[in-house]
Design brief:
By secondary structure, the protein is of the alpha+beta class. The chain folds into two domains: 10-70 and 172-195, Pseudouridine synthase I, catalytic domain, N-terminal subdomain (Alpha-Beta Plaits), CATH 3.30.70; 75-167, Alpha-L RNA-binding motif (Alpha-Beta Plaits). Helices cover 18% and strands 27% of the residues. Strands 1, 2, 3, 4, 7, 8, 9, 10 and 11 form a nine-stranded mixed beta sheet that branches. Strands 5-6 form a two-stranded antiparallel sheet. Strand 5 (99-100) and strand 6 (103-104) form a beta hairpin. The model is unreliable at 1-6 (pLDDT under 50).
């Protein structure tokens, strides 16, 4: 979906797998520019090349700060497909926080999903290993360390195979398909401002 808008605004994008979370790449790899033709908006937070799902792009610097600054503790919700089925001990380890580069992550909300979530197929399927079962976790973080979910699950013995962000604060991915975006409403922005806090 491409169109040009001239007023200040914020959009929600479903970033596909294999797309860089920026607008230019000297190596010619897919970027946000392949999906969003709007000047003046910038990503409020990152989502790695091999991760998918919700990104917020905005021309409002104050809003971007509220979204990305960990002091605001804005929850980010992820679905992570991991190798093997975590037991309660592994889940508790993730909930309490794990040590990454000498620093313990903040406590997280983690639950094992009883069924596979309904998600669009990924452009490049995950590697399939016949003798290694997989499970899906819902993980809610209130900080944004580099590749945090993948590093946390690996530390708990369950490497992440597929990672999809489905919510940032009150903004949900909803039924946006990979590569699609929509404008965020003023009501949703007000909710971000009310949820983000310095508790």
């Amino acid at each position: 979906m491409k169109r040009s808008l001239c007023s200040a605004h914020t959009i929600a994008l479903n970033k596909p797998y294999g797309v860089l979370p920026c607008f230019t790449d000297p190596e010619g790899r897919p970027t946000l520019a392949d999906y969003v033709a709007i000047s003046g908006v910038y990503a409020a937070g990152r989502l790695d090349l091999d991760s998918e799902g919700l990104m917020l792009l905005t021309s409002d610097g104050t809003l971007a700060h509220r979204i990305t600054d960990p002091h605001h503790k804005l929850p980010k919700v992820y679905l992570a497909q991991v190798e093997r089925i975590p037991n309660e001990e592994a889940l508790e380890q993730l909930r309490r926080g794990v040590v990454l580069n000498g620093k313990k992550t903040r406590p997280a909300e983690v639950r094992l999903l009883p069924d596979d979530p309904q998600l669009p197929d990924r452009s490049t399927p995950i590697r399939f290993r016949k003798n290694v079962p997989t499970a899906w976790l819902e993980i809610i973080l209130r900080e944004g360390l580099n590749r945090q979910v993948r590093r946390m699950t690996a530390a708990a013995g369950h490497p992440t195979l597929r990672l999809v962000r489905i919510a940032i604060g009150p903004i949900e991915l909803g039924d946006l398909q990979p590569g699609q975006w929509r404008e965020v409403t003023s009501h949703e922005i007000a909710k971000i401002n009310s949820v983000a806090s310095y508790k």
